[in-house]
Amino acid sequence: MLRYITDMTIIWLTCLLVYELVLKKESFYKYNRLFLLLALAGGIILPELDFQKEYVAAVAEGNALARPVQQLYELKHQVVTATPIPDKEVTQPAGWDAATILWIVYLSGVVICLLVIAKESIQLAKLYRAGKKTLEGQCTIVETGQHHAPFSFFQIIFVKSKQDYDGPGWQFVLQHEREHGRLFHSFDNLLLILCRVIFWFHPLVHIYYKRVRAIHEYQADAVADNIVAYGSFLVEQTLFDRTPILVHSLHYSSIKNRIAMLTKSPSAKRQLLKYLVAAPVFSLLIVFCTQTSFSESRKQERSTVLFKGNEIEFGAIKVVPPGYREKLEQQRKMFAFVEIPDSVLVEDRVTREPKMELVPTQKVPVALNGKHIFGNEFQFMLSETAYNYTEPSLSLSKTDFERHLFSVLHSDLNKLEDGEYVLNLKNVVVDEKGNIAYYENPKLEVYMSITEKQPSVDKALSDAITQKIIAEYNSSIKFKPAKKDGNAVSARLGLNNYEIVVKNHAATLTLRAGC
Known about the structure:
alpha+beta, 25 strands, five-stranded mixed sheet, 14 helices, elongated
């Protein structure tokens, strides 16, 4: 969500700056209106688009144009994902985490906005029902008898009374409000109000609302044939009360700005070339703010399997590159919730030049029967579970699971040839009741460099070891479940990195250095 809001903000702010600095003073109102509406829609839609395949190909081919984009993304990534650690831990009521509180605040704002709109809609409906209605062309005139400026909603024009206006004044009202209806400004207005409700917390959406509404007025003012008389008429409208946000009113927006635009000479056609700036701007935003292969939120394929009556959902999690772990640890000491980027800067082994390389991913269980599976394995370094989280542990023993397995397998391990081995125990999930809910077949592997003499592993002995581990998984062994914020949760068992060293047919368990 943070990444989405950040990308949306970048798009909105960039386009707004282009409008303010390049396009705002031009009298091509329909193009300005289109530009702002497209920018607003682009900020909402572009962060959800995925151009991963195209940009992966660009990187694979060594496209020089992709390199500045990569560097730009990495800079954005560091800004977005680095959140300062609080000076002290904030105590929250049980069951109320930060995300829940934020959702409550957000939904409260939405409800308040909807109540305001509902109130004004009811007032508008009352004015329509109580008013005197007549037809003039395609417009319905509603005389409300109440003190307010003329305003319109689609093809309905609301005035206090037609008798309050002389001939020219009434024509100004009709022309102005008819133009709003002809150009479908009310559709824009309703969409803008909807955006303001959904993104009420974002200041830029309210700025876009004001800019588009001002353009609506410029377009409607442009039909006036007597600019001097129309300008005086506009000044008179400032004495009236405000009107509902759902409608277009004659006194909306700055009268000073509207008169300035009325008296401004039409922009020369060559100024239309300014709008060509939109093409490179939108192209850059598509690269920078969509879910490219360098984007933190790139989509990963998910799959589901059934195991011992449980539904296990798998997802891809990024594996921390060995050369990046130290840097990531330093960042996590300074900032909470630092995330692993999708690509990192590494040194090419042949050319010794720096290059961007995609971070590998590994498929692991992420949900058990629809509930999230937690975990904090060293290779993932998932910072979101690092706080108020404890891993599962054996209930009736002070030792860890690997040492327990070593004691069970000790007699078989002694039969191995001299050498160094490791037990590959992948994706073991302990549910919230402390039972093993999922595991993958373990595997005994030689852990030695290719320059050393490799021991041969008897297949029958290796299979016997594997079967004993599986039997242990399926036994009545019990764990203390993992806890997050004091509540029992399902978790992947964060197995440590132990090496089995066999010498003279005597096996010992040693912690692997450097991991």
